[in-house]
Amino acid sequence: MAAEPEGAAEGAEAAAVAEEPPEELAHAEVLELFQEALARLVQDPLLCDLPPQVTAEEIGSQVALEYGQAMTVRVCKADGETVPVVVVQNASVLELKKALRRHIQLRQARQGGVQHLSWKYIWRTYHLTFNGEKLADDRKKLREYGIRNRDEVSFIKKLRK
């Protein structure tokens, strides 16, 4: 029998250790670790404007905004409140509507306000407008309407036919 070269036994031990299954954590433990990591992340000056219960989606949007891959569209609601919504640079009207819906849902969940809005009713009752032009085509890109970073779109009530 040939002698094993030096280090072969150590390599076999390392391989055996590498094959051990990783330590399994309970869902609650993983969630806690994730929340702690997010809390550390939002202390970064780039992300300090985000709420404490931030989502990974919100962090991604903020980073995309910083790198110029996204833009903020201010949506002026019928009650006069302005909501900043982050969308990708080449977003369509439909993507803006979805981002607005997500933003409002997250805010409601954090504040404990009204838990359900009928978005079907909202889009049936209101148009989004920019510089007096209705954003009527959901497939059309925001830039085709001339919407750029920090521009403001408004809700306007539809007229009855």
From TrEMBL:
Source species, domain of life: Eukaryota
Segments forming domain Ubiquitin-like: 71-161
UniProt region (Disordered), positions on chain: 1-21
GO BP annotations listed: mRNA splicing, via spliceosome
Pfam families (UniProt xref): Ubiquitin_4
GO cellular component: U12-type spliceosomal complex
Name used for this protein in its record: Ubiquitin-like domain-containing protein
Compositional bias of kind Low complexity: 1-19
